Amino acid sequence: MRKEEKAQILESIAAQLQETPNFYITDISGLNAGQTSMLRRECFEKGIKLVVVKNTLFHKAVEALGNEEATLVFPALEGPTAIMYCETPNAPAKLIKKFNEAGQDKPALKAAYVQECAFVGADKLNELCNIKSREELIADIVALLQSPVRNVVSALQNAGPQTIAGLVKTLSEKE
Predict the structure, then answer these.
(1) Which of 5, 6, 56, 84 pairs with 97 at a CA distance of 20 to 30 A?
(2) Which residues have C-beta within 8 Å of that of residue 80, sequence separation ≥ 6?
(3) Residues 40 and 12 in one domain
(4) What's the pTM?
(5) Treating both helix axes as pointing N-terminal to C-terminal, what angle do 33-45 and 91-101 enclose, rounded to 10 degrees?
(6) Residue 157: its pLDDT value, please?
(7) What's the sign of the alpha-carbon dihedral 128, 132, 134, 136?
(8) For residue 68, how far is the Cα from the chain centroid?
(9) Are residues 124 and 155 located together in one domain of the fold?
(10) In this model, does residue 79 exceed pLDDT 80?
(11) Burial level of 58, CB count in 10 A (0-12/13-18/19+)?
(12) Per-residue pLDDT, 26
C-alpha cells in the first residue's frame, strides 16, 4: 500500500471518528460469508457502520485525536480488527450480545470507546448493553418529573367531589 493510499485511509478514519465518536473494536474473523452478510445487514438496520481496518492506521487515527481516554483501547488493537461506529452508544453491544446468545462466539468485543469512556475487554459487554442512550435518559427524566403530578391528579380523581370540596375549603380557611 502506497503512502498516498494510507493517508487517504487515515483521513477517512479520522473523519469517521469526528462524525461518530462512539466506536467498538471487535473481532469478526472466522465468520463465513453468510454470517458476515447477516452481521452487516443487522448493523445497517441498527445504524451501525462496520469497517475492517488495519490496526496501525486506526492506532494513528485515534492518536491524532489527542484524547487520553481513547488511547486506553490501544492494547485491543491486535489481530484481526473490525470497528463498529455508532450514534447510539449501546446498539453494537446489544448486537454482539444477540449474536453470542445465538451460540456464535463472533463478533467478539475487544474494546469500546463510548460516551468519552474506554471499556477494554469482553467482560465489559453487559456494562455496555446497560448504557442508556440520550433519548432514553430524557424519557426517564420526563417520567420522573411527571410522576408526582400524576399521583396528585389520580388521587383527586379517585377521591370524588367530597375530597375536592374539603380541599378547597381547607385552602380557603388558611388564607
Answers:
(1) 56
(2) 27, 28, 29, 52
(3) yes
(4) 0.75
(5) 140
(6) 67
(7) positive
(8) 20
(9) no
(10) yes
(11) buried
(12) 92
